[in-house]
Amino acid sequence: MTPNPIGLKVEQLAQALAERIVPLIVDAIDIDALLDKVDVEKIIERVDVDKIVERVDVEKIIDRVDVQKIIDRVDINAIVDKVDIDSLVEHTELGSIIARSTTGVLTEVLDVVRAQGVGLDDFVLRWGNRLILRGRRTATWPDGPPLLVEPKVAS
User: Of 125, 107, 126, 103, which Cα lies nearest the Cα of 115?
Assistant: First the structure.
């Protein structure tokens, strides 16, 4: 069976007309006026941003978008409010680091206080000796507790 020759001629005529008319119509359209009628907000509402982010090369977007403007609009306080500090400390060694650093500082402070105490004790002992032993012979004081100091060997 042969195709309908009239249908073929009509199709060829329609194709020839379209090839001449469509460029004339496209050239006659004012694209700026057409875009002015587009409701951009309505288009944005229909766009699935997550799908765009999944499919588009991020490097290309960064080159075209002013990321600093986006960062400036981000509410950092709201983000920080959502951070669970207790969970963060629990999942890191931050607690032990704080404990170790605090212990180290307290140990150093305690050492300083002890050293000051020893110095003060020595100062009080000297002044006490001056007041009590004024004009008498000076007493011989031990070097330390008897059980901790080795006895001196006479030479």
Answer: 107
